[in-house]
Automatic annotation (TrEMBL):
Domain Rhodanese residues, every copy: 55-107
Cited SUPFAM superfamilies: Rhodanese/Cell cycle control phosphatase
InterPro entries, per the entry: Rhodanese-like_dom, Rhodanese-like_dom_sf
Organism the protein comes from: Luteolibacter soli
Database matches in Pfam families: Rhodanese
Protein name, per record: Rhodanese-like domain-containing protein
Length: 164
């Protein structure tokens, strides 16, 4: 019994002693998340403000959901870049400058079409990591659609293969 406990303890210590990966920085992620928490609250916008800002020249509406869901149904005029594909190069291809106004939305902003806007657990809503990631890459003008909207009654127009 003592031998197996000692092995588990030793194995755990060996794992904890692994050298850090310079490409993974949880401490910086945590710090950025705390910075973004305050900023994000001032950047959550109404449906009307979203529509008004989206219509202004130079604004990018970004959909970070899967390509499959985007192709089926997305906000008209939105560009697609899956969150898992965010990189300096990929972001630069869809957002021209770090100070470009970027509007984001996610599955949890819409109800009434669950096939294409699958609700996530509230703390796992895509808007949260999208906002944090954009901030981490230095994008300074990000705004987030705030409310939960019924897809059948929202004023926001949609495009995609499933538009009726």
């Amino acid at each position: 019994m003592k031998t197996s406990f000692l092995y588990v303890l030793t194995a755990g210590l060996a794992f904890a002693a692994e050298p850090p990966n310079p490409k993974i920085d949880f401490d910086r992620f945590r710090a950025i998340s705390l910075e973004v928490a305050k900023l994000r609250e001032t950047r959550r916008i109404s449906e009307d403000d979203f529509l008004r800002l989206a219509a202004e020249p130079g604004t990018v509406v970004l959909d970070a959901r899967s390509r499959e869901k985007y192709d089926q149904l997305h906000i008209k005029g939105a560009v697609h870049l899956n969150l898992s594909d965010f990189s300096e190069v990929a972001l630069k291809e869809v957002i021209p400058a770090k100070d470009t106004r970027v509007l984001i939305y996610c599955n949890n902003n819409f109800e009434g079409e669950e096939r294409f806007f699958v609700s996530k657990a509230a703390p796992a809503a895509l808007n949260i990591p999208t906002f944090i990631s954009l901030h981490s890459y230095g994008y300074t003008n990000v705004h987030e659609l705030g409310p939960l909207l019924d897809i059948k009654t929202t004023k926001i127009p949609f495009a995609g293969k499933s538009v009726k």
